[in-house]
Design brief:
Blueprint (H helix, E strand, L loop, with lengths): L12 H8 L8 H11 L4 H11 L5 H36 L1 H5 L4
Helix pairs in contact: 3-4
């Protein structure tokens, strides 16, 4: 059985390819503070999240943050609509309950 004479670690091909890619620059605290301040302003926050999420030249970290924020907002809107429909269906049917049950109130 042949054993390799070189004892240095060689990562698998996928890991080596990922290690040679250039990393995104670190987003500074100042830029994150500006990001959070802009996200606190109504209407501006939605516009900026779409610009950061789908625009060119955005730092990948900020792009992922914007995409995650938009996805989370979409999930909350869908849940809100589902609960609103359930609420209206349940309490709307209760408004007609005396007529359906034959009791007078």
């Amino acid at each position: 059985m042949d054993t390799p004479t070189n004892n240095t670690y060689q990562p698998p091909l996928g890991q080596h390819a990922a290690a040679t890619l250039s990393q995104a620059p670190v987003v500074s605290v100042k830029h994150w503070m500006l990001t959070f301040i802009l996200c606190a302003i109504p209407i501006v926050n939605i516009v900026m999240l779409f610009v950061w999420a789908f625009g060119d030249g955005t730092n990948p970290n900020k792009r992922n943050y914007a995409r995650a924020s938009l996805l989370l907002a979409l999930i909350f809107i869908v849940l809100y609509v589902v609960f609103l429909v359930l609420f209206v269906a349940i309490f709307g049917s209760m408004a007609f309950w005396p007529e359906l049950s034959g009791t007078n109130m």
